[in-house]
Amino acid sequence: xxxxxxxxxxxxxxxxxxxxxxxxxxxxxxxxxxxxxxxxxxxxxxxxxxxxxxxxxxxxxxxxxxxxxxxxxxxxxxxxxxxxxxxxxxxxxxxxxxxxxxxxxxxxxxxxxxxxxxxxxxxxxxxxxxxxxxxxxxxxxxxxxxxxxxxxxxxxxxxxxxxxxxxxxxxxxxxxxxxxxxxxxxxxxxxxxxxxxxxxxxxxxxxxxxxxxxxxxxxxxxxxxxxxxxxxxxxxxxxxxxxxxxxxxxxxxxxxxxxxxxxxxxxxxxxxxxxxxxxxxxxxxxxxxxxxxxxxxxxxxxxxxxxxxxxxxxxxxxxxxxxxxxxxxxxxxxxxxxxxxxxxxxxxxxx
Length: 351
Prior knowledge:
The protein is of the alpha/beta class and 351 residues long. 26% of the residues lie in helices and 30% in strands.
C-alpha cells in the first residue's frame, strides 16, 4: 500500500485532499505544522480541526513544532523586507523553507515515508525529454496556486502529490460533503496566516517595527502630506494616503532610507521592465538565451507577454511587451508557457 504524509492546516482544501487519498487506498498520515499561536487555520484552531479530521478518517496525526523555523524564515524575513522599503511575499518563501522541505524531511526520517501531499491547486508531471518534473497550473485557473510554488525543488516535485489539481474549486466542498467531513462548511481563509492571527498586516508589523512619521512627497520632492511609517505602504497603493489632490495619486516608491513615501499619477506607476533575483528554474533547465513567456507579477494579476533575458548570478531581466503597473520589489515574478510554470524569482529593488 502506498503511504503518504498529508499536510493538514485544518481547512477544507487540505482535509479534502487527505480524504481523497484515503479513499483511493493510500495509507494516510496527517501532519500539521505548528507555526504560531493565535487564531487562524495555521494556528490553534487549525490544529484542532486537523486532529478531528484524522480521527474521522481513522489515521494518525502528527504535530511538529515549527515555530522557530517560521520565526526565522517568515517573520524575520517580512520584518527585514518591510524595514528596507520592499513588500516581501511570504507564501512562496514559507512553502519552500518551512513547509514542503521540512515536511519531506520529517516524513522520511521519522515515519519512513517518501511522499507528501497538500491541498494546493496545482499539478505536476514528469517530462521525459528534459528529465525534469514540471509544475503545471491547476485545471481551475481561477484558483490556481502554482504562483506560490515556483520555488520548489526538483526533489520536492518528484515526491509531492496535489490531489486537488484536477478539481474545480467549486467541487471541493461537494467532495468534502460527500465524505461528510466536518470542515466541509468551514469558511475559507481570505488572508495571510499572519494577518488572520494578528488582525491586520499593520498590527503584525507594528509589533516589530516602531512607526516613524515622515513626509509623503511627489516625484519632484514637494511635500504633500505625512505618513505614519513607510512600512504601512506598498507600491501601487491608492487608498489611505490622506491627501486631497486634483487627480488620483499612487505610491510609486518607498524611500526607507530617508523615511519618505513617494507618490505620482497612474502613468508614474508604469514600468517597461524589471530585474528578478533568486531564480528557480522549474519546468525547463536554465536557458542561456532570451525566451518568450507570460509573466505574472502578483497572485491576482493576469500573466502578460514578456521576454526573459538571463543574467549572471541567478538573475534575469524581464522586458514586458507593454509597460506594467505597480511592479513591486519583494514580490514574486513567475513565468509560464501555457499551463507550465517555467521559473520564477523575487523582484529586485532597483537602485
